[in-house]
């Protein structure tokens, strides 16, 4: 029993509900409480790591909390093993950086924005920490509703259309997830993940196939894998930049975590293999990666291009995890971490650079690099990391992914990794070249720009926004040189992921 | 058997409205119809013809209906209502800008 696990969910939830009341009293206090909430969250995570450092080193790390004092399998359990800890840490770090960015970026309706933002923080922490199937459903739906509202946050025609499209796809996925959870309950009479995992093999293979297929469809829609990817680029394009950073940096990674949790811990990979679903899924993911990169080639809009590239990378991560080898998990998890920072950093940098342009289109990208050289150099560093240039973090993770594919003799997968890097060179270098093109501005243009970009007219906001961009670049460069730092946490999380019996024992027995 | 038949009919009706109709509000109705079908099926499936699961002192009832699916469905209904509300709000917003709620006439929804 460790109350800090519960507090990890309750602190952002409490902050979200506190902010409207703070607004009523004094709107200037709002930012103070936002910072307080996110700092408290970071403090909780850091204290969990420091207090349990010895167990972490020995590979015995496990914390849980019984809600209401009801022991499993009756009550709801929150459980944290090494895999959840790694995801919780990187999620909290991303949320921390993006909330500071938002203080500089979001100009109006700040109160509403922070409420939705902290609800996303609470829901993603909850989805990572819970050990109960229905709880995962509730947190997924929380993520869907809040992120749908944030996608429509700009209140333009395009934003509303994108949000409607996003919501229709994701509500359908949530409905399928609900049906899957209920079918599991009717067959096994329990909702605890460890308990389900213990008894899942005793079901008939027809029901096993049905449940696996339903969960697979639901999670593939949520992650944006090939047959269901059409909601993704549009919503990435129209959402405000910090929201896009959250969508690609936090939400898609939380869905990957749920995917791993359900298909390794709950259903079990042996079941998937027996049903022959793993080959299908591997091919779908690789196809998704291929189509993501091909669509990115023809895209003429920088944010939409990054969305398609996200599809490519998430497909690659899913494929390399589906190999079910240790090297595959190592590469996949490392690429999850590096993609999280690279993509969020790119959207953050885009939010700054697109202030200079009229639209997100390629032709308007002209001259952006000359207007603010230092941020554009950070942007280029992040792009090179996406391509996989050697001293940066993107190279390390792509190398491990490629090695995992070669080790498993999946040559199509290895081809996709190299194909992704090569196409990325083409579609990113285009933008870098365009950014350095000379542009002539008249007095009227400059005047119009000052009205259309309130962000840059206030000094401290510009400072914050560019500082976060540099911070992301520093993370990419720093960890690119020292990616061995991730060795211990990744090995621990792979160990706890592969050892399902230990997880069951700890959740049910503790 | 009868339950399953009604579930399939309702679900397919909702799916038809979601896919084939071009009016966005009808799409939302279709989505809600699918949700209603699932909820109906869950409640009907968990009903084994027993008592309500409230234990009274000094009274012995051996056959209860399982209350857990009912509780889960209640949560599902709340979530369905909030997503429907959010969708309808966004459709009203869209109507303000473009003056139409027809999916085919809207620019920017079909790319």
From TrEMBL, chain A:
<dbReference type="InterPro" id="IPR050586">
    <property type="entry name" value="CPA3_Na-H_Antiporter_D"/>
</dbReference>
<dbReference type="GO" id="GO:0008137">
    <property type="term" value="F:NADH dehydrogenase (ubiquinone) activity"/>
</dbReference>
<keyword id="KW-1133">Transmembrane helix</keyword>
<dbReference type="Pfam" id="PF00361">
    <property type="entry name" value="Proton_antipo_M"/>
</dbReference>
<feature type="transmembrane region" description="Helical">
    <location>
        <begin position="74"/>
        <end position="101"/>
    </location>
</feature>
<comment type="similarity">
    <text>Belongs to the CPA3 antiporters (TC 2.A.63) subunit D family.</text>
</comment>
<dbReference type="GO" id="GO:0005886">
    <property type="term" value="C:plasma membrane"/>
</dbReference>
<feature type="transmembrane region" description="Helical">
    <location>
        <begin position="305"/>
        <end position="323"/>
    </location>
</feature>
<dbReference type="InterPro" id="IPR003918">
    <property type="entry name" value="NADH_UbQ_OxRdtase"/>
</dbReference>
<feature type="transmembrane region" description="Helical">
    <location>
        <begin position="375"/>
        <end position="396"/>
    </location>
</feature>
<feature type="domain" description="NADH:quinone oxidoreductase/Mrp antiporter transmembrane">
    <location>
        <begin position="132"/>
        <end position="421"/>
    </location>
</feature>
<dbReference type="GO" id="GO:0042773">
    <property type="term" value="P:ATP synthesis coupled electron transport"/>
</dbReference>
<feature type="transmembrane region" description="Helical">
    <location>
        <begin position="113"/>
        <end position="130"/>
    </location>
</feature>
<feature type="transmembrane region" description="Helical">
    <location>
        <begin position="136"/>
        <end position="154"/>
    </location>
</feature>
<keyword id="KW-0812">Transmembrane</keyword>
<feature type="transmembrane region" description="Helical">
    <location>
        <begin position="408"/>
        <end position="429"/>
    </location>
</feature>
<feature type="transmembrane region" description="Helical">
    <location>
        <begin position="329"/>
        <end position="354"/>
    </location>
</feature>
<protein>
    <submittedName>
        <fullName>Multicomponent Na+:H+ antiporter subunit D</fullName>
    </submittedName>
</protein>
<feature type="transmembrane region" description="Helical">
    <location>
        <begin position="166"/>
        <end position="186"/>
    </location>
</feature>
<feature type="transmembrane region" description="Helical">
    <location>
        <begin position="32"/>
        <end position="54"/>
    </location>
</feature>
<feature type="transmembrane region" description="Helical">
    <location>
        <begin position="6"/>
        <end position="25"/>
    </location>
</feature>
<feature type="transmembrane region" description="Helical">
    <location>
        <begin position="244"/>
        <end position="267"/>
    </location>
</feature>
TrEMBL record, chain B:
<dbReference type="GO" id="GO:0005886">
    <property type="term" value="C:plasma membrane"/>
</dbReference>
<keyword id="KW-0472">Membrane</keyword>
<keyword id="KW-0812">Transmembrane</keyword>
<dbReference type="InterPro" id="IPR050601">
    <property type="entry name" value="CPA3_antiporter_subunitC"/>
</dbReference>
<feature type="transmembrane region" description="Helical">
    <location>
        <begin position="36"/>
        <end position="54"/>
    </location>
</feature>
<dbReference type="InterPro" id="IPR039428">
    <property type="entry name" value="NUOK/Mnh_C1-like"/>
</dbReference>
<keyword id="KW-1003">Cell membrane</keyword>
<feature type="transmembrane region" description="Helical">
    <location>
        <begin position="74"/>
        <end position="94"/>
    </location>
</feature>
<protein>
    <submittedName>
        <fullName>Multicomponent Na+:H+ antiporter subunit C</fullName>
    </submittedName>
</protein>
<feature type="transmembrane region" description="Helical">
    <location>
        <begin position="6"/>
        <end position="24"/>
    </location>
</feature>
<comment type="similarity">
    <text>Belongs to the CPA3 antiporters (TC 2.A.63) subunit C family.</text>
</comment>
<keyword id="KW-1133">Transmembrane helix</keyword>
<dbReference type="Pfam" id="PF00420">
    <property type="entry name" value="Oxidored_q2"/>
</dbReference>
């Amino acid at each position: 029993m460790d109350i800090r696990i519960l507090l990890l969910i309750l602190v952002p939830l409490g902050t979200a509900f506190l902010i409207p009341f703070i607004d009523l009293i004094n709107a200037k206090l709002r930012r103070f409480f936002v910072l307080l909430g996110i700092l408290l969250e970071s403090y909780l995570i850091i204290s969990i790591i420091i207090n349990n450092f010895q167990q972490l080193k020995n590979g015995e790390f496990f914390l849980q909390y019984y809600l209401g004092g009801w022991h499993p399998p009756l009550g709801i359990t929150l459980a944290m093993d090494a895999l959840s800890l790694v995801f919780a840490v990187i999620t909290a770090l991303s949320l921390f950086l993006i909330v500071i960015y938002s203080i500089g970026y979001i100009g109006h309706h700040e109160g509403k924005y922070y409420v939705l933002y902290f609800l996303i923080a609470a829901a993603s922490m909850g989805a990572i920490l819970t050990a109960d199937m229905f709880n995962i459903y509730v947190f997924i739906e929380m993520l869907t509703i809040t992120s749908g509202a944030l996608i429509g946050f700009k209140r333009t025609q395009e934003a509303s259309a994108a949000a409607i499209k996003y919501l229709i796809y994701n509500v359908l996925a949530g409905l399928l997830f609900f049906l899957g959870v209920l079918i599991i309950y009717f067959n096994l009479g329990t909702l605890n993940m460890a308990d389900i995992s213990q008894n899942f093999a005793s079901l008939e293979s027809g029901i096993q196939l049905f449940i696996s297929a339903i969960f697979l469809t639901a999670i593939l829609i949520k992650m944006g894998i090939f047959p269901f990817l059409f909601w993704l680029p549009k919503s990435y394009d129209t959402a405000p930049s910090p929201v896009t950073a959250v969508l690609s940096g936090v939400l898609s990674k939380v869905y990957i975590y749920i995917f791993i949790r359900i298909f390794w811990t709950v259903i079990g990979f042996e079941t998937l293999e027996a049903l022959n679903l793993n080959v299908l899924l591997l091919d779908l993911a690789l196809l998704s990666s291929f189509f993501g990169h091909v669509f990115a080639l023809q895209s003429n809009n920088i944010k939409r291009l990054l969305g398609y590239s996200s599809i490519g990378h998430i497909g690659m991560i899913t494929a390399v995890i589906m190999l079910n080898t240790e090297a595959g998990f190592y590469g996949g998890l490392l690429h999850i971490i590096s993609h999280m920072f690279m993509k969020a950093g790119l959207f953050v940098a885009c939010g700054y650079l697109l202030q200079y342009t009229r639209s997100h289109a390629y032709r308007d990208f002209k001259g952006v690099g000359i207007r603010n050289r230092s941020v554009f150099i950070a942007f280029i560093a992040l792009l090179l990391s996406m391509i996989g240039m050697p001293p940066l973090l993107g190279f390390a993770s792509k190398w491990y992914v490629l090695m995992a594919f070669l080790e498993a003799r999946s040559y199509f997968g290895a081809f996709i990794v190299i194909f992704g890097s090569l196409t990325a060179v083409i579609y990113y270098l285009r933008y870098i070249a365009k950014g350095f093109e000379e542009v002539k501005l008249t007095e009227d243009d400059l005047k119009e720009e000052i009205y259309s970009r309130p962000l840059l007219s206030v000094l401290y906001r510009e400072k914050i926004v560019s500082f976060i961009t540099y911070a992301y670049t520093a993370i990419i460069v720093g960890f690119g040189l020292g990616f061995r730092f991730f060795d211990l946490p990744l090995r621990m999380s792979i160990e706890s992921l592969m050892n399902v019996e230990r997880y069951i024992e700890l959740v049910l027995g503790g | 058997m009868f339950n399953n038949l009604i579930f399939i009919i309702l679900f397919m009706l909702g799916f038809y409205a979601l896919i084939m109709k071009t009016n966005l509000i009808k799409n939302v109705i279709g989505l809600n119809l699918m949700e209603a079908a699932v909820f109906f099926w869950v409640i009907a499936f968990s009903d084994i013809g027993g008592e309500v699961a409230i234990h009274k002192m000094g009274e012995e009832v051996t056959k209860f209906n399982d209350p857990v699916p009912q509780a889960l469905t209640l949560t599902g209904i709340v979530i369905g209502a909030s997503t429907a509300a959010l969708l309808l709000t966004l459709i009203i917003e869209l109507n303000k800008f473009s003056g139409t709620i027809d999916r085919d006439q809207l620019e920017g929804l079909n790319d």
